[in-house]
Design brief:
By secondary structure, the chain is mainly alpha-helical. The chain has 6 helices and no strands. It is globular, with a radius of gyration of 14 Å.
C-alpha cells in the first residue's frame, strides 16, 4: 500500500507511521481467524463500522483495500483454494464497511 500508486488514497487516510496500525491489524486478523485475542484487551470490541465512521469508506476505497489484501494473501497463503476463501470472507467484511457512495 505504501509504494503502490493504485492504493494511494487508501494509504493517505492511515495514520503514520504505519507500525502501530500494522500491529493493530495483525491483532485484529489473528482474532478474526480464530487465534489468540490480543485485539480486544487493547481496544475493546472491534465495532469496525463505528471505528471507521470518521472516514468516508467508499466503494473505491474498498476496491483498493481488497487489491492490497489480494496481494498479501496470495503472497503468504500458498493454497489458492484457502486464499480464495479468505478473500471471499474479507470481501464481505469490506463490503459491510462501505458507508458513502
Amino acid at each position: 500500500m505504501e509504494s503502490d500508486a493504485y492504493a494511494a488514497s487508501l494509504f493517505e487516510m492511515h495514520p503514520k507511521p504505519m507500525s502501530a496500525i500494522r500491529q493493530l491489524f495483525t491483532d485484529y486478523l489473528t482474532m478474526w481467524f480464530g487465534g489468540p485475542d490480543h485485539y480486544t484487551p487493547k481496544r475493546g470490541h472491534p465495532r469496525l463500522r463505528a471505528r471507521h465512521l470518521p472516514f468516508k469508506v467508499t466503494k473505491e476505497l474498498k476496491t483498493q483495500w481488497m487489491y492490497c489484501m489480494r496481494i498479501a494473501i496470495y503472497q503468504h497463503v500458498k493454497n489458492k483454494r484457502i486464499a480464495d476463501q479468505i478473500l471471499s470472507a474479507l470481501d464481505q467484511l469490506a463490503e459491510h464497511m462501505i458507508d458513502k457512495e
